[in-house]
């Protein structure tokens, strides 16, 4: 069967009609939609409009040939180096004039797993291994957990020169199993993670 992006004939027809380009594919309809959302958000006063990097410049399974392009003001929250078979590195987006934010998995994530699932990262690992210009996981993380199999390290995910196009970093709570912790337990557990992320983001760790 076709990849999901190539099995959306109605999206493809819409994209070709709107663009007048018979090379447009379903993914182009998605880009048009993102651009509309961006325009709406900016019209009501939002200065920063962002999307996750998964679906920004996604060619590997979409057949996209560039019939449309994302609004130039859309910024990228970079969490996964798997995108486009690892080709869409942090450098990839910077070279296209995109502002980016470091949300790299697993350093910027605390996931509520079932009770018997191990945590992928610790606050100490954040302090020792991560910094805001590293957009890739440590090799040991890549290979020790079957759930997260990342491509080999790409130098494009380590930014070595200062740039104001890297706007910041963030931290995410991922509720795979919301009932695994109470609100009070969660607050207690995530405080060391927040502390570690903030220290590294401010260059203090």
- The number of helices is 6
Q: Decide which structural class fits the backbone.
A: alpha/beta
Spatial strand arrangement across the major sheet? 1-2-3-5
Mean pLDDT: 91
Order of helix and strand elements from N to C terminus? HHEEHEEHHEEH
Stretches with pLDDT under 50, minimum 5 residues: none
Q: What is the strand content?
A: 5-15%
Which assembly state applies to the chains in this document? single chain
Helix share, percent: 25-40%
Gyration radius from CA atoms, angstroms: 19 Å
Overall spatial form: globular
Main β-sheet, in a few words? 4 strands, parallel
What is the total tally of β strands? 6
Distance between the termini: 49 Å
Give descriptors for this structure.
single chain, 205 residues, alpha/beta, 6 helices
